[in-house]
Amino acid sequence: MTSPIELIAIDLDGTLLDSQHRLSPRTKAAVWRAAEAGLHVVIATGRPRFSGYTYAEQLGLKTPGVYLQGLTVYDGDGNLLHEITMQPETAHRILQHTLDHDLAVMVYNHQRKVTARHLAERTKLLAHYGEPTPDYVDDLLSLPDQMPISKMVFVERVETADAVRRALQAAVGDSAHVFLSQPDFVEALPPNASKGAGLKWLIDYLGVPAERVLAIGDGENDIEMVQLAGIGVAMGNASPRLKAVADFVTHSNDQDGVAYAIERFVFGEGK
User: Fold this and answer.
1) pTM for the model
2) How many other CB atoms sit within 10 Å of the CB of residue 216?
3) CA 142 to chain centre
């Protein structure tokens, strides 16, 4: 059987990884089988490559990847192919809002993650995602003058995260894209940036038509990617907004949902 799929784009947290941030044996086997069949298997995550690529290595893949919510794209050898950064004045406005409202923020580009020294305890949740210890600074407002900024992540309580998102979006207007990537994470990106935009850049670079892409995710940050793909799949544990736009809802991340989607749509099994 010849699969109509040439490329599989897979989110990490809540999708490829189970709720304990592990790769299940069945998921590993399905991903490896797809790679052995000649498909591009692409990690598409909000994480930076320095924490996200470890899972490609565990899978034995030398694969291109979409990282930092689509703001950076790498080839299989780890070369940076594409990068989008925030306008310094927008970054400064967001950081001023952060200080004015006592928010806990982590600042990223493709090489660094940075937070304020006094926010170390409040941002430590990000360490659960396998990221290295951040650089600590005393003056957040000076960062846009010292480094390019790709995105910012705000660590919030689930019950307050959406209110923080709405207030930040109102403060920055259309100069940034603000959304929930997890129930307790608010992210700010350059306008029009998304995993879907990053994936579109990559498939154009590789010469893969969108209709031959299978994309799998669980969060609101996966909406554009799932809509772009010829077959867009939401996990069983996905957000209602993602399920509403997906072509198919698979099993949850604790029930090998990625493996089931690959078996069904790449190999024609389990229908």
Assistant:
1) 0.88
2) 31
3) 27
Nearest to 72 by CA among 131, 148, 138: 148
pLDDT of 61-87, one tens digit each? 888 999 999 999 999 999 999 999 999
Residues 208 and 79 occupy one common structural domain: yes
Helices and strands of the chain, counted as H and E runs: 9, 14
pLDDT digits (tens, 9 = 90+) for 10-43: 999 999 999 999 999 999 999 999 999 999 999 9
Cα distance between residue 253 and residue 154, in whole Å: 24
| Domain end position, chosen among 159, 189, 219 | 189
Hunting for tokens 């006094």 — which residue is that?
118
Structure tokens, 152: 């910012």
List the structure tokens of 11: 């989110």
Q: Which domain does 175 fall in, by range?
A: 88-189
Residues found in the chain: 271
